[in-house]
Amino acid sequence: MRFFLAYAVISVSVAFGAVANDQQDTAVGLFPFCVNGREHCLEVLSANATAPSRTVPFGRKARLSNALLHTYTKANRASDFQRRQTSASGIPQVERTGVVQVFDDSNESIGYVSVTTEDGAIYRVDSALMNAAIVTVSSQATSASGTGLRVSVTGSDISARYPLLGLVQGRDNVDANIGFGSYHYLYLAGVALPGTSPQDSPTIIDNSYNDATELSLAAETDLWEINFSTGTMTTTWVNTNGTPENTVLFVQDGIIYAGGDMDAFANEYSGSSVTGITLKFVF
Ligand SMILES: *[C@@H]1O[C@H](CO)[C@@H](O)[C@H](O)[C@H]1NC(C)=O
Ligand SMILES: *[C@@H]1O[C@H](CO)[C@@H](O)[C@H](O)[C@H]1NC(C)=O
Ligand SMILES: *[C@@H]1O[C@H](CO)[C@@H](O)[C@H](O)[C@H]1NC(C)=O
Q: Which residues' Cβ are closer than 6 Å to ligand 1?
């Protein structure tokens, strides 16, 4: 299926070269290994990664995990972690630190957004709490929920140059848009400061996926919504015309993706199962 579609894309590009996106032509040409029914192809990322290995030394990982587990044994863990601040606007801010738990489409926990990523480039899910990435969210202290939130990751094997939890345009997308009926997808990845602002359109900004692949794909960062009483954490991607799109999250081969239509993605990459997920900020 994927093989056939890759050909279809190439043919379309040839026929309508003037309107085809150069990046898509490049991506299809440079990623022949990816034509196996799965979105991810380790061969390409590994062969092309230019940066040195970013694996977190075991000692640091263990310290993070111990600190995290310690918080779970405390009755009043949330208040321990909430650091009150006042923003420039004078509105009191609260900073919450926790982990992101992942539930499947039957609402069963399948683990956490992990410190161990796909080649320092894309976030994965890992069943063990001790491997959970540490995340921090700032919001107005008085708000029970927030939209357009920025989430920072303080502990993962993604380079500290990409501290913001963002979404990055999928390698095989023709453009940076997602939508119902389209296989287009996004990676959950690390993005460099200054990030993007709420409602911003996709922006080409340094990120962990571009670093690993040397592609120039667009990203967004301040696109998280969190209900602080339930922890429910959702996201809304903004298309290039400024329209917010209904955005769903899913997993293939343990790698976390977002998109506008999970079934269209699963149909495009039919070589491995795709599972819808929901996220919960546990703090
Ligand atoms: C990745 O590596 C392969 C094989 O070494 C090479 O053919 C391809 O051009 C590289 N792709 C990129 C994006 O650098
Ligand atoms: C899913 O499970 C979590 C925790 O087990 C629970 O808090 C939440 O209400 C459930 N959500 C739905 C939609 O069933
Ligand atoms: C948070 O979720 C709960 C349970 O679904 C809901 O009752 C409440 O209205 C939500 N809070 C906000 C601010 O959306």
A: 30, 44, 47-48, 213-214
| Per-residue buried b or exposed e for 7-44, using 16+ beta carbons within 10 Å of the residue's own CB | eebeeebeeeeeebeebbbebbeebeebbeebbbbeeb
Q: Beta strand 125-126 with 92-103: parallel, antiparallel or unpaired? A: unpaired
Name the E strands within 12-133. 83-86, 92-103, 109-113, 125-126
What global pTM score does this model have? Answer: 0.75
**Percent of the chain predicted with pLDDT > 90:** 59
- The answer to whether the CB of 250 falls within 8 A of the CB of 257 is yes
Are 24 and 173 spatial neighbours (Cβ–Cβ below 8 Å)? Answer: yes
73 lines ligand 2 (CB under 6 A): no
Nearest CA to ligand 1 atom 11: 30
Give the residue-averaged pLDDT of 105-134: 95
Atom of ligand 1 nearest to the CA of 26: 13
Which residue's C-alpha comes closest to atom 13 of ligand 2?
107
The most confident of the ranges 141-150, 155-164, 229-238 is 229-238
Backbone angles phi, psi at 211, to 5 degrees: -60, -45
| CB 229 less than 6 A from any atom of ligand 2 | no
